[in-house]
Amino acid sequence: MEIQIKFMAALGLAFSTAAITPAHAAGISADALAGKAWVEAKPQSGLPGVMMVFLSDGTLLMDSCWETYALREWRRNGPDSVSWDEDGAKISAKIKSITPTQLTLQVKAGRDTVEHRYLAAKVPYVCPDMKR
Q1: Residue 125 within a domain
Q2: Which has more confidence, 76 or 19?
Q3: 22 with 31: CB under 8 angstroms?
Q4: Whose CA is closest to 77, among 91, 62, 60, 57?
Q5: pLDDT on residue 10
Q6: Strand partners, 116
Q7: In sequence order, what are the residues at sequence separation of 6 or more whose Cβ sits closer than 8 angstroms to the Cβ of residue 64?
Q8: How do strand 59-63 and strand 51-54 relate by DSSP bridges?
Q9: Cβ(107)–Cβ(113) below 8 Å
Q10: What's the angle, vertex CA 119, arms to CA 76 and CA 83, rounded to 5?
Q11: For position 67, what pLDDT does the model report?
Q12: Concatenated DSSP letters for 39-91?
């Protein structure tokens, strides 16, 4: 009985701190955001969109057809918010909606909030030749 009580207390502590710890430390594996390649849908530039892959170990892979990939750390700040470090700047985003095939993030950009829509990547996909 005592072991069961300690286990339940530890489990409760783990869930209470999950919202403010890195994804890997919180043991988040069933996160609908993680483990999927998300590609920006219809970016304003008209170029192929940015790809983001939120890994369950707290690593964020960001890539595009015109830039070198970057590995960053990400974390859940709450049930509908995430943040990541981008070259020393903390980027915060609200998850406006998420389904198995679509993700909408409201990203804080200075004083502005910019909405970005993503689709689950279709496989296989190869970036088109980009004019330089």
Answers
A1: no
A2: 76
A3: no
A4: 91
A5: 38
A6: 105
A7: 47, 48, 49, 50, 51
A8: antiparallel
A9: yes
A10: 20
A11: 86
A12: EESS-TTSSPPPEEEE-TTSEEEEE-SSS--EEEEEEEEETTEEEEEETTEEE
- Say if residue 114's pLDDT is above 60: yes
Buried b (16+ CB within 10 A) or exposed e, 65-76: eeeeeeeeebbb
The structural domain count of the chain equals 1
CA distance 99 to 117: 12
Can you say whether the dihedral through the CA atoms of 46, 50, 51, 54 is positive or negative?
negative
Please tell me whether residue 35 adopts helix, strand or coil conformation. coil
Question: 116 lies in which domain range?
Answer: 2-120
Chain-centroid distance of CA 81 in Å reads 9
* Lookup: tokens for 43: 């970016």
Q: Percent of the chain beyond pLDDT 70?
A: 77
- Structure-derived torsion over alpha carbons of residues 93, 29, 122, 91, reported in degrees to the nearest 10: 20
- Coil, strand or helix: which one is 119? strand
CATH code of the domain containing 11: 2.40.128.280
**73 within domain boundaries:** yes
Tokens at residue 130, please?
Answer: 């980009």
